[in-house]
Amino acid sequence: MSDDNAGGGKPRPYISGNSSADKHNVGAGLAPALQTSPTLVNPAFQPFLEGLNKLGLELTVQQSKQFLRYQQELLDWNTRVNLTSITDPEEVMIKHFLDSLSLLMAFDAPEARLLDIGAGAGFPGLPLKIVRPQWHIVLLEATGKKVKFLQHIIDTLQLKDIVAVNGRAEELAHRAEYRSSFDLVTARAVASLPALLEYAAPFCHIGGQMIFPKKGYLD
To answer: For the chain, is the Cβ count within 10 Å smaller at the N or the C terminus?
Structure first.
């Protein structure tokens, strides 16, 4: 299992495309987004902001700080725990954070309950939680050390209505509180598409969606 799937297919919509798209309030119906403070912008963060603009997204100052802290903690923990092979700060912002947020092009709602299967270092669930703070999110991960990292990020960023669960999809699907209870189920770099469908289907309620970012094109 790898945590380095950049996901989203090619070409990435935030690398090329019409940058005049309408801006989405990152709070999804909450207070209007604020312009990011120039003091927060560093060389690694600027391409991320440009990619967000291509997606029609803006961050509040608080959300910008959360992404920067997330990046710092990820790279720090990665020296002790195998979380990602991507160690360039700019690539973390693009291949992990921005790719995760590209899921909002396929699914977005003011309120949602999301399950991230095989969350690894938190992609896509944690970036989505930062920009959709009102969503309820479950991060499912089988490796204990990674679950500890996820919980550390949840605590450090002071995120609410998000939990990191140590377990496997085939086990969790038998628990009543999780079965058929999610609006959106997603997974990134976990397994083949047929296997993902088998893992995810029991968690989706009727009318829910399953989204699995993959590299390249589907045949």
So the answer is: C
